[in-house]
Structure formats: C-alpha cells, structure tokens
Amino acid sequence: MGGAVSAGEDNDELIDNLKEAQYIRTELVEQAFRAVDRADYYLEEFRENAYKDLAWKHGNIHLSAPCIYSEVMEALELQPGLSFLNLGSGTGYLSSMVGLILGPFGVNHGVELHSDVIEYAKQKLDFFIRTSSSFDKFDFCEPSFVPGNCLELSPGCSQYDRVYCGAGVQKQHEDYMKSLLKVGGILVMPLEEKLTKITRTGPSAWETKKILAVSFAPLIQPCHSESGKSRLVQLRK
C-alpha cells in the first residue's frame, strides 16, 4: 500500500504532502508526525526511501506507508491521558508518535511477536529520547514493548481507550479485538481488506466505519508449547 502522495526530500516535506492530500487533517496529528522523523526507523542503508509514500519491509522489520499511518492516527482520535494498545508494535514508530499526544498521564503499550523487532524498537526509542528536540513541546508517554502473540493476551488484561492492530485481522478474531476496548473506546484494524474503525458505544453496542482498502499480512496464529498450553501475554498498567 502507499504511493498516494509525492515523495518528500525530508520528513517535513513528506508531512506537507500528506496534509495537502488530506491524509493528515488535524494539528495534533501533524505535530506528532513532524516530531518523529520516519527515516530514523529505517536501517541506515535504506534511509533514502524513508520519505516515499511506500511500505518498507526488511526481514521481520516493517513500516506501513505514511498515508496508512496518517489515516490510523486520525481515526484513533487521540487525546492526552488515554490508554493505547498497539498490537504488532513493530519498530515503535507509531507508538512514539502516539506517546507524544498521550502525554505524562497516558498508557502506551505495544505487543510484538518477534524478539529481534522488540530490540530494534528499543534501540530506536532510546535514540529518539536522546536526540529529539520534541520534548520542548511535548510531555512524552514512553511506550513499553512486550513480547508475545497479540491473540494470547492474559484474560486479566485491562481494557484500553484506543487499540490499533498492525496486521490483517481474520473475521473470527473480530470479537476478541473488540473485547479489548473500554466503552467509548476506538479500535482501528485491517479487517477483510479494509482499514476499519470500530467505536464501542455501549457494553454490547458498536459503530463500524470502513476507512479505505488496504493489504496487510494476516495475524500469525498462536503456536502452542509442547505442553499444549499457550503463553499468555501479561500487560500491566
């Protein structure tokens, strides 16, 4: 997915193009995108592609196209103090942008299947914290990344105000994803080839909006241990 807007020479020009094409529509989202340089989440030898509106994948490392992240950030309707769960948190690029909006009283959790990607994300987060000038303008809700399969969250896991899943969700897992939301919360995920926004309007009431057609790799199904038991992912606020 991607290719919807022109490439930029740098991060700011990419954001200008996303604004002009109406992918970025609110000031808060614009500020977060400008504060986190997309190229810093690429391997050095691939940085020249960072400002193109294209997805990037190298081994287990993956970044969605800028136009997709823009739609996700806008659909989440983020506000300071909310709790956020990123399922398939990857490089931590999205989680870092979200953290700038959530501020010091938010919760920012990521679950990632691949341990090498978690290490990569931690390195990128450390670099961002050490080098970014954004903290003059933002109070940061630092993301924490937990290893595991997002389909195996502990039943005692708290519900969240905002949830994003970065892999294609099979129809049979839709209710599981919805169960992670507080009433009033928003879930954004690829469902049946459409980026979908689901708002929990009551204990058993939902509003669903299809945002745009997307192509995401599907969620990886859990692998059970030799004992036949799954490894539950523990998330603590």
From TrEMBL:
Cleaved signal peptide residues: none
One family name in Pfam for this protein: PCMT
Keyword terms of this UniProt record: Cytoplasm, Methyltransferase, Transferase
Subcellular location: Cytoplasm
One GO location term (cellular component): cytoplasm
Major localisation: cytoplasm
Molecular function terms from GO: protein-L-isoaspartate (D-aspartate) O-methyltransferase activity
Gene Ontology BP annotations: methylation
Family (UniProt): Belongs to the methyltransferase superfamily. L-isoaspartyl/D-aspartyl protein methyltransferase family.
PANTHER family hit by this protein: PROTEIN-L-ISOASPARTATE O-METHYLTRANSFERASE (PTHR11579), PROTEIN-L-ISOASPARTATE O-METHYLTRANSFERASE DOMAIN-CONTAINING PROTEIN 2 (PTHR11579:SF2)
Protein name: Protein-L-isoaspartate (D-aspartate) O-methyltransferase domain containing 2
